Amino acid sequence: MDPSDAEGRTPYAVVVNDEDQHSVWPAALPLPLGWHEAGVRGDEQHCLQAITRLWPDITPRSARVPAPATAGERT
After folding, report:
1. Taking a C-beta distance cutoff of 8 angstroms, is the pair 12, 5 a contact?
2. Residue 35 belongs to what H/E stretch?
3. What does the radius of gyration of the chain's CA atoms come to, in whole angstroms?
């Protein structure tokens, strides 16, 4: 464990993917493919609290948004 993390000084970022799933990521590391910053940085606890506010429905976007009707389908 990084000693700065034990003292709460490691900066983290709230990150989000295309499915609107949120996570905490060490701000100094490159983001994994498919993820981007949500605009919140701070210690881990601050980021976790922000996720609680930003992500009240943990259902992935693809399960919440109905698929568009294709040609020939009745709606």
Report:
1. no
2. strand 35-42
3. 17
Given strand 22-26, what is the order of strands in its sheet?
22-26, 12-17, 35-42
Give CA–CA dist 25/28, Å, rounded: 9
pTM metric for this prediction: 0.73
pLDDT tens string 37-56: 999 999 999 999 999 999 98
For the chain, the first-to-last Cα distance in angstroms comes to 54
61 SS3 class: helix
Q: What is the DSSP string of 7-24?
A: TT-S-EEEEEETT--EEE
C-alpha span between 64 and 4 (Å, rounded): 39
Residue with token string 């609107």: 20
Report pLDDT for 3: 42
